[in-house]
Design goal:
This protein has 111 residues and is an all-beta fold. 0% of the residues lie in helices and 66% in strands. It has a six-stranded antiparallel barrel with strand order 1-2-3-6-5-4. The relative contact order is 0.25.
Length: 111
């Protein structure tokens, strides 16, 4: 994937990167919360819309590619927050291995 044509000025969406923090719930399970890992300027590119059904209820998912400046602390299980929107990170990769950008494939669930 060519990144020499990506204009960093297109990164106009301000999003919060959040990481999960698990704490024991006292009954053998965990309670998961998310804490901020920093605010970022991003480029959000919609990829695909999916509709699934669970227990007779339709659930819509949107998948996006979220472009950010390269950083080493992004991993699967983290998420982006933009207001009330939550985008779970499914994968993260350096598109041309130049350490300039990171592309995060994300899923947003709509109800």
């Amino acid at each position: 994937m060519r990144t020499d044509t990506i204009d960093p000025g297109r990164m106009t969406a301000r999003m919060e990167l959040e990481r999960p923090v698990d704490t024991p719930d006292g009954q053998g399970g965990i309670s998961r919360a998310f804490v901020s890992a920093g605010a970022l300027w991003t480029l959000i590119e919609p990829r695909v819309a999916l509709i699934t059904e669970r227990a007779g209820e339709k659930i819509e998912h949107l998948e996006h590619d979220v472009w950010i400046r390269h950083r080493t602390d992004v991993s699967v299980g983290m998420r982006f927050r933009k207001g009330a929107r939550l985008l779970a990170i499914l994968s993260a990769f350096d598109p041309d291995e130049s350490r300039r950008y990171l592309v995060c494939r994300c899923r947003e669930t709509l109800r």
